[in-house]
Design brief:
single chain; about 100 residues; alpha+beta; 60s Ribosomal Protein L30, Chain: A; four-stranded mixed sheet
Amino acid sequence: MTDLTNDIRLAVDSGKVAIGMNMVTKSIKRNDAKLIILAKSSETSRLRDIVHVAGVAEIKLLKFDGNPVELGAVCGKPFSVSVLSIIEPGNSNILKY
């Protein structure tokens, strides 16, 4: 596993994250999101909206080099994850990217 995947998993396990478009959008609107991670092959109009709003809010975006199923596996979830936001990094160094 790469450092990024390790840090994503550590942030999910020890910090606070929002998973999914609705929860990520809420975290942006509440000004809680510190970083947004998108699965590389996720392209929908709602994700483009999240990218736009994150840009306006000056929240850093990272592209995960994998599809939503792989990002879901990294997060330890039994479903695909197209987008997640880091609210609290926990014990991870995810905000250094």
